[in-house]
Amino acid sequence: MQLYNNLSNEERAALIEQAGKDRLTISFYKYAKIGNPELLRNHLFINWNELDVLGRIYVAHEGINAQLSVPADNFEAFKKHLDSITFLENVRLNIAVEHDNFAFLKLKVKVRNKIVADGLNDDTFDVTNKGVHVDAEKFNELIEDPDTVLVDMRNHYESEIGHFKNAITPDVDTFRESLDLIEEDLREHKEDKKLVMYCTGGIRCEKASAYYKHKGFKNVFQLEGGIINYVRQIEDKGLENKFIGKNFVFDQRRSERISEDVIANCHQCGEPADLHTNCANEACHLLFIQCDSCKEKMDNCCSTNCQEIIKLPYEEQKELRKGQGNSNDIFKKGRADHLPYKKDLRNIFETLKK
Ligand SMILES: [Zn+2]
Ligand SMILES: [Zn+2]
């Protein structure tokens, strides 16, 4: 029985192409008590591998978080299998707007301590005491309310290319930082304001809303299913779209376009652009925004230094990397002193304190 797949990305891509099937990009999550994550992990791998499902799935004692690519022809069988697992019966599936057959190239099911690395100690607050879940229609209404404070729970490189109109977009690298910043800045408004929050697929708000209620916020709301599900509802029900730009996603597509607005700028020349690039230098891999002309001029690199390195023979590049460890830039997504046009939004909260 094959529980792990050993094919390279190139081999996987070739296989997918041969199969010639359209794939759906799907994500879902569920918080639930799971006694034996390892057992669930194996069960999912065996069954989904048979259905040619690809993606990245985290299983933990606290639940499951899955980003998937499912062959359209196998969708019904996949759904049936999900429904056969008691705690996943009728789980809400977030189905992407734009599909890409190569969104994922492998099936990886991993057992983790948590399904989101949120940095929270769950024993210190009641994680089940969540905010009110609202659909797109109610969300649109709420965010027009003058008593609402709308907060984007994602990180700076996500909200930079797209967010809801009038949302506060904390300039943070991690979810944990964002929680404290927002609490600090809204300290005076725990009772009189409505705290409305959203994220990509809804999972981060599940914990955040419970955390804020624990911290004394009286009116906490969260967008059910996040931006992905919001966009679906906008289309299905003909509602007004209040999201501008692109939704950053965690697969090869990197983002999906929601409105035609380009709200970000190339970090190198400042021209309007909203496409993320990973620096081509393997020792750097900085994630940053690059326009097409800089991409060409810089050979997909973030700096002339990186550009010089990628021109060296591969063995020499490897030699250079020795002992360096991973560059910090990998974790400082889109932050580097040599990128002159990366917007610094760290003072955005000042606008709230009037
Ligand atoms: Zn540029
Ligand atoms: Zn670089």
From TrEMBL:
Gene3D superfamilies tied to this protein: 3.30.70.100, Rhodanese-like domain
The organism's taxonomic lineage, starting at the top: Bacteria, Pseudomonadati, Bacteroidota, Flavobacteriia, Flavobacteriales
Gene name in the database record: trhO
Entry's EC annotation: 1.14.-.-
Keyword NADP among record annotations: no
InterPro entries according to UniProt: Rhodanese-like_dom, Rhodanese-like_dom_sf, Rhodanese_C, TrhO, TRHO_N
Function (record text): Catalyzes oxygen-dependent 5-hydroxyuridine (ho5U) modification at position 34 in tRNAs, the first step in 5-carboxymethoxyuridine (cmo5U) biosynthesis. May be part of an alternate pathway, which is able to bypass cmo5U biogenesis in a subset of tRNAs under aerobic conditions.
Catalysed reaction, written as an equation: uridine(34) in tRNA + AH2 + O2 = 5-hydroxyuridine(34) in tRNA + A + H2O
Name under which the protein is recorded: tRNA uridine(34) hydroxylase
Keywords noted in UniProt: Oxidoreductase, tRNA processing
